[in-house]
Amino acid sequence: MSFDWEFSIIEWSIIAVVIFAWYIHDKYVQRKHQLLVNYPIIGRLRFLLEEVREPFRQYFGDEKFYESKDKLDWLNKACRDLPNYASFSPSQPLPYPKFMIRHANIVLNEDEVEGGFEVTFGPRRKKPFISKSIIGRSAMSDGSISPEGTRAFAKGALEGKFPINTGEGSVTSNFFVTHQNYKADYMKVVHGTKFEKRIKDVVQFFFNGAVAADVYRKLVFGKDPEAETYIFDLQSSLFHRINWDAPLESFPKEVPTDLPDITFQISSGLYGARDKNGKFDPVRYEKVMRFCRMTEIKMAQGAKQTGGKLAGHKVTPAIAYYRGVEAYKDVFSPNRFPYANSIEELFDFIGQLQQISEKPVGVKIVISDLDNIEPYAKEIKKRIDQGKDSYPDYIAIDGGSGGSATAPIETMERVGLDIKDSIYLVDKVLSEYGVRDKVKLVASGKVLTPDDVIIIMSLGADFIQIARGFMMSAGCIRARYCSGTTGHDCPVGLATQNKSKRKKYFVHKQARKVANYHKNLLKSVKGMLAIMGLKRVDQLNKHRIMFIDKDAKVYDNMDDVFKRKLKIGRDLGDDYHEHG
């Protein structure tokens, strides 16, 4: 193949005039960019490189945020269900300091390791939740995530048999994408005409189901701003959404089996569980919990100690409908949970939720020091001694190292301990107060690979929640445009409400990758247990790991390690030093 690059004199003259005019504009006309005055035209290369820096950063340098690029490679292979082995040596060895696992002299074969990874939350409740996995997808709000992204996660969670956390955006229609065996009593169903269905069939024949569904939705709903609050079932050609105005008696008594295991997160905004005045609505909450396994009260999150933030351009009419707010206006949750002006008030509210739902209720916090967990431990012990059970069934601890969505940069690395320090401290405090066996510990914070799971569970966690890992398994390329406040949108359509981007997101393909990621995490955790000589995951403890500090010194006692790492202001048992 050859190209004719010859231009006529006129064409060359036009190009020269354009470049000269551009030069004059940059040097003598514009007064916005100082750089262009000194370097007309060529100076614009700087702005081009700045624009592509974030999306392309990961391709041209060693990984700085997730310990090593090899961990990301593992994730990418796991979600595609590819063989996950390395050759010769790691391309980027894990830096010191780092934790190491202890292997056994006589290891096990993988078939000798028990495959059950169940975790029971709230055994004291009338309806405890038995998770089929030690791993769940962490909180991601429908709103910060696109509708298509939420559907992919819901499908992947049902297929993979692991729990999924709603985030503070509440239970939306997109979590019900797999729910087809419903009763019309609690569902609002919309039919299209025969003519509209015929057009849909024709479009599907020539294109695909996604395009056909989009065309059909526009035909059926026209300009209805709430059109996207309905889920479309391609087989039945019906649109449906939960009718929250239906009487409580119409809602299912048990969670439908064609739904994933959902944890309903309730934040300071009370979205999904509030009335028109923004107050807690116990009836609405009970309706929501007919579809969820347990509740998580969000007191804090690694990325958002200031309360969740959703920029106005992401608050579409559908998101506004779900949250009970005004469309296209910023939704910034209050910093303080409205029913938590004290630990005692928070626990009373937890008890109220436990009584209404008859299901486990937990609390999500971030740890900076002892003062963040000791009041919880004291109140739990006090209530147990009083014969009360109105205390958290689990405590979810988020690492303080940034976040995957919208958060103030000034708090990302300045508030909260790393998850390893946090989980050790919380496990230690609850044990010192004699209440550790009453509360499950859930951990999250930069968990990507099976070795991360093993280390954090060895330090005291009962369950792991993952956000970033699941995001990347669902197609995230870490362009860091999640908030949409930079003038750019998520390029893959996962974390944006931009229709032109998100409509091209492959829901079914990404759902399978999400399920594969979870499957291979558990498979590799089982493999690591085998070389540690352990038959069950609950045999993990702090004596199963070691620590190598930045000077390559090896420590085989975790209590000694954390004595040095966590120099707190007062003693806690025999395992802590006085500060200074």
Automatic annotation (TrEMBL):
Annotated transmembrane regions: 6-24
Tree of life domain: Bacteria
Sorted UniProt keywords: Membrane, Transmembrane, Transmembrane helix
GO molecular function: glutamate synthase activity
Record-linked Gene3D superfamilies: Aldolase class I (3.20.20.70)
Database matches in Pfam families: Glu_synthase (PF01645)
Gene Ontology BP terms: glutamate biosynthetic process
Protein family per UniProt: Belongs to the glutamate synthase family.
Protein name, entry field: Ferredoxin-dependent glutamate synthase
